[in-house]
UniProtKB/TrEMBL annotation:
GO terms for biological process: malate metabolic process. Pfam families: malic, Malic_M, PTA_PTB. Residues 168-403 form the Malic enzyme NAD-binding domain. This is NADP-dependent malic enzyme. The lineage of its organism: Bacteria, Pseudomonadati, Pseudomonadota, Alphaproteobacteria, Sphingomonadales. Residues 23-156 form the Malic enzyme N-terminal domain. Its EC number is 1.1.1.40. NADP(+) binds at residues 81-88. InterPro entries: Aminoacid_DH-like_N_sf, Malate_Decarboxylase, Malic_enzyme_CS, Malic_N_dom, Malic_N_dom_sf, Malic_NAD-bd, Malic_NAD-bd_bact_type, ME_PTA. It comes from Sphingomonas spermidinifaciens. Its cofactor is Mg(2+); Mn(2+). The active site is at residue 99. The keyword NADP applies. A divalent metal cation binds at residues 141-142, 167, 291.
Length: 752
């Protein structure tokens, strides 16, 4: 029997994730300033009266004066929450909040969850219909069949904005895309394949209808529910199911699957058994899409049939066939042309765009993150949800299909410009970070956590291990295993812990350290004491002796002290100037700031080195660097005595011809504000800068910490660049998830 791996996190961790900080996953952020009395007067009474009157006169201006045009309601009554069943409206809220954040994360669609406490079809219809003024679209979610069919159909007829039941059509679109590709790979034609659909609810019926519309023959499909095959003449099925009743002798799923080419699971956990898989046709196609637990785990299916192509709804296996690959982008396209609905032409356009994307050459950053030359094949029949191309390709295809089929009320005139705007709508850093996490899973490394007695570090180490990103190597005393146990770890002994009091590596470490430090005035016994007592020195020596690929420290000591300790053991990389980068990540922009941690007053040459190395990191993170050397002065105005090193750095780059845009000296508002930059038409930056090289540590460190404490954006780092070994010093304020990100970036070689 093949073992099925545990989930990447514990129940406790998942609950903590949802409870930590502000409970839940969404909050509302004002998009206009609300600081002064004047702001308030404009935003609310009396200023708000003007858009009210304008909309009353011309309803279409609601799209100009309110958030309606980019706002989608995710609506459920909790009767079919994933594959967990009917657990009620309130219990569905975490899933609906989740869909809302996926909308934002993947397609910059604002979305709010609405849970309706009723199973009465008419009440749901009335409630949703009444919401039309508020929203640009309605995404129905996890409402069970057959009620969902009536609800969606009626709302589509009555409402003038897109109404889309994601479990039906979102799922069908992705399933169709995956099936097209799986058939291509196995040399099958849709018109020939024998398909068994397990489940006869919302998702199953919609998928069956779409694949039949695409060419799968009605006679070649057998649908099953919990009772077994839905055969012609079975009298306990509803009208939507009986439309798919099969003329067959088969009565059970096992019988139906005999010789079948395709299994589409839209039912419940564990419904497909290895014996059934063994009885399928050669190179069977198995889509086990129940969430969160599929009909069969891929390991089990693969063990039964090594020749199978397998997909699940989960993100932790190859081939995630999940509606998340569709709904954000489908709504993006529909909203952007103000479509009155999402019709079949738009759905088919989305399915084809997704299928084609998987067959296209995979971009280097996606391939690099997977650690393999990921190209179309049995383990890659469908793009991953964080594939940065989905936004542009699928949304544009849907928008175009809406225009061609006559449901777009505001057609896009310049499609090329629209595609560019779609690309700009997402920050590539988020995609690169997701890919870095995936890359870490593909190539797990050993990361030394030098402060293994700290709770925040242990939580990071647990998340790092359970996420499959690599093996944490903990530095700590005897009680680390007890501490892990107290944090809910069932198998604390399985964590590798190095204790300097008893480690057999200590003599080798002392030798190593003494050889380095003897000519810097250190005695052997001082080296012994450092190895025994200093966790940074001990951790760094573990790294030097090959016990790990990277090291993380920083939460128990000031940065400079950690740096001093580490430098006793690890040198800068030959010819490099070590320095630190803080990365500021917003919804649409990323800014790299350096050197924020190491060099107090860098020389011109050092600043040029820092600029080149930061530009490389920016490129690795998906950004074409545009470097500004910052100052209080812009091109000598005002003059001052602190500008020399900056000017030397610019001259040094002039000689080096580094292959990216750079300019300086300039004030931050010139570097970051397009209007201000335009006042200097000779400046060699085509757009505002995204790499800010600071003149000295004072301004750099203060700016980075101010932004971390006061800014609304996410701050990554500081990343320590330019050391001979991969070592990272986190800020003392780091959270467990900051530490995991740093560990992933370090292990993947992103921060070097
Ligand atoms: N990967 C993806 O993107 C998506 C996956 N899904 C998954 O599909 C499943 C169904 O969701 P949805 O259609 O919305 O829910 P519905 O409640 O509308 O339908 C559930 C269907 O599953 C059937 N079913 C339940 N257990 C079994 C079983 N052991 N064997 C055969 N049939 C069974 C039910 O049959 P009966 O009436 O006999 O109980 C019913 O027909 C869920 O697991 C969900 O997570 C759904 C949408 C998207
Ligand atoms: C993915 C999804 O929507 C579901 O499982 O219900
Ligand atoms: Mg769903």
């Amino acid at each position: 029997m093949t073992d099925v791996p545990a989930d990447q996190f514990t129940e406790r961790e998942a609950l903590r994730f949802h409870a930590e900080g502000r409970p839940g996953k969404i909050e509302i952020v004002a998009s206009k300033p609300l600081t002064t009395q004047r702001d308030l007067a404009l935003a609310y009474s009396p200023g708000v009266a003007w858009p009210v009157k304008a909309i009353a006169e011309d309803p279409s201006t609601a799209y100009d004066y309110t958030a309606k045009g980019n706002l989608v309601a995710v609506i459920s009554n909790g009767t079919a929450i994933l594959g967990l069943g009917n657990l009620g409206a309130l219990a569905s809220k975490p899933v609906m909040e989740g869909k809302a954040v996926l909308f934002k994360r993947f397609a910059d669609v604002d979305s709010i969850d609405i849970e309706l406490k009723t199973e009465d079809v008419d009440r749901i219809i009335d409630a949703v219909e009444l919401m039309e003024p508020s929203f640009g679209g309605i995404n129905l979610e996890d409402i069970k069949a057959p009620e969902c069919f009536i609800i969606e159909q009626t709302l589509r007829e009555r409402m003038n904005i897109p109404v889309f039941h994601d479990d039906q059509h979102g799922t069908a679109i992705i399933t169709a895309a995956g099936l097209i590709n799986a058939c291509l790979l196995t040399g099958r034609r849709l018109s020939d394949i024998k398909v068994v659909v397990n489940g006869a609810g919302a998702a199953a019926i919609a998928c069956t209808e779409l694949v039949k519309a695409m060419g799968v023959r009605h006679d070649n499909v057998i649908m099953c529910d919990r009772t077994g095959v839905i055969y012609q003449g079975r009298d306990d099925v509803n009208q939507w199911q009986s439309a798919h009743a099969a003329a067959t002798e088969a009565r059970t799923l096992t019988e139906a699957l005999h010789g079948a080419d395709v299994f589409l699971g839209l039912s419940a956990a564990g419904a497909l058994k290895p014996e059934m898989v063994k009885d399928m046709a050669p190179a069977p196609i198995i889509f086990a899409m129940a969430n969160p637990e599929p009909e069969i785990r891929p390991e089990l299916a693969k063990a039964a049939r090594p020749d199978a192509i397998i997909a699940t709804g989960r993100s932790d296996y190859p081939n995630q066939v999940n509606n998340v690959i569709g709904f954000p982008f489908i709504f993006r396209g529909a909203l952007d042309v103000r479509a009155t609905g999402i019709n079949d032409a738009m759905k088919i356009a989305a399915a084809n765009a997704i299928a084609e994307l998987a067959r296209d050459r995979v971009p280097d950053e996606v391939a690099a993150a997977y650690g393999v030359q990921h190209s179309f094949g049995p383990e890659y029949i469908i793009p991953a949800p964080f594939d940065p191309r989905l936004m542009e390709v699928v949304s544009a295809a849907v928008a175009k299909a809406a225009m061609d089929s006559g449901v777009a009320t505001r057609p896009i005139l310049d499609m090329a410009a629209y595609r560019t705007s779609l690309r700009a709508r997402l920050n590539p850093t988020t995609a690169v970070l997701s890919l870095a996490y995936e890359g870490a899973r593909a190539r797990p490394k050993r990361v030394i956590f030098a402060e293994g007695e700290e709770e925040v570090v242990l939580r990071a180490a647990i998340a790092f291990r359970d996420g499959g990103y690599g093996t944490p190597v903990l530095v700590g005393r005897d009680d680390v295993h007890d501490r892990l146990k107290a944090l809910g770890v069932a198998d604390p002994e399985s964590f590798e812990v190095h204790n300097s009091r008893i480690s057999p590596l200590v003599p080798a470490m002392v030798d190593f350290l003494y050889a380095r430090l003897q000519r810097r005035g250190f005695l052997r016994r001082e080296c012994e004491r450092m190895v025994n007592q200093d966790r940074n020195i001990f951790g760094a020596l573990l790294l030097q002796l090959g016990e790990g690929d990277a090291m993380i420290t920083g939460v128990t000591r000031a940065y400079a002290q950690s740096m001093r300790e580490i430098k006793r053991v690890i040198d800068p990389a030959p010819g490099r100037t070590p320095f630190g980068i803080h990365v500021l990540v917003g919804q649409t922009h990323t800014v790299f700031i350096a050197d924020t941690t190491v060099n107090e007053r860098p020389t011109g040459e050092e600043l040029a080195d820092i600029a080149e190395a930061t530009a490389q990191v920016a490129r690795r993170m998906g950004h074409e660097p545009r470097v500004a050397f910052l100052s209080y002065s812009t091109f000598g105005n005002p003059e001052g005595k602190w500008l020399d090193n900056i000017r030397e750095a610019v001259s040094a780059l002039d000689k080096r011809q580094p292959g990216f845009e750079y300019e300086g000296e300039m004030a931050p508002d010139v570097a970051l504000n397009a209007k201000q930059l335009a006042n200097y038409p000779f400046a060699r930056l085509s757009e505002p800068a995204n790499v800010l090289i600071m003149p000295g540590l004072q301004s750099a460190n203060i700016s980075a910490k101010l932004l971390r404490e006061l800014g609304g954006d996410q701050m990554i780092g500081p990343m320590l660049i330019g050391m001979e070994k991969n070592v990272q010093i986190a800020p003392m304020t780091a959270t467990a998830s900051d530490l995991v990100t740093l560990a992933v970036l370090a292990a993947g070689g992103m921060a070097r």
